[in-house]
Amino acid sequence: MSAAEQLAALRLRIDALDEKILELISERARCAQQVAKVKKDEGEAAMFYRPEREAWVLKHIMELNQSPLNNEDMARLFREIMSSCLALEQTLKVAFLGPEGTFTQAAALKHFGHAVKSAPMAAIDEVFREVAAGAVNFGVVPVENSTEGAVNHTLDSFLEHDLVICGEVELRIHHHLLVGETTKTDRITRIYSHAQSLAQCRKWLDAHYPNVERVAVSSNADAAKRVKSEWNSAAIAGDMAASLYGLTRLFEKIEDRPDNSTRFLIIGNQPVPPTGDDKTSIIVSMRNKPGALHELLLPFHANSVDLTRIETRPSRSGKWTYVFFIDFIGHHQDPLIKDVLEKIRSDAVALKVLGSYPKAVL
Question: How far is the C-alpha of 137 from the C-alpha of 135, rounded, in Å?
Fold first, then answer.
């Protein structure tokens, strides 16, 4: 058989497989419609999206995957199928730190898929307010970066709002130096970006543009928008902003650390049942006395609970008083975790469970 004949036969097989895939996706979509009807009949309209169910499906798919496609690619395909099917039940509204083109929007689409209705907000606190008011189903906010640490605006917003953490997203962050059509690349005098992005590219900028002004703006997407109308400026931003605002990558992947990643939180109003692979986030206020931090951490050590993060922020209750933000492995309904929280509560001034949620799948 000639090469042309082999290709023709393979294409016919691919066409047949595509038809089967179409049939199976259609069947799944019809099942989703039936699920919506059952939930509406039982009065569960507020619970169409189940974070624990979505996480289980994606993990199950990756465990079963034996194809040439890697787990991340396979999960991404199923994420979009699930997103479109969920939209047949209920179109989710998701607020994110805008404007359009930010890494936070990329995180929202990674977690929920492209079938959601996303709403850009000008500030992190606005995301919290939209979720609290019920104007959107969920919000997506950055909480920490592997290079620059905690996002304090997000931590402080948890002190002011009673919302639940429903999930997390980890996003690999690649920064590019972007220019517009009118930019004179040999006469760049100003580089715009978010303060954290400028910090994440500090060494690269010192080496390549040591004398150029670095201007911190509200977001990387805002930086990209500014560059379109200025001939002497550039922006540091990601792929989404470059595509959305029609900018060219003058230099790619300029972040100082190759493993640069940001963690985002999904905030909502519904608690999430255990999945068996969860995290819990809490806020604790301790009495200001010697050994307070030791007392706080001792129950975790005694119960062999893995702490993944601890941050300190000034308390709103008084000068030189502080609260601790703590993330750890486990669900607050687990007996072991319940014991830890009871011991902490007995010594703490205040303890607030922000939520238990599935660990990031991808």
Answer: 7
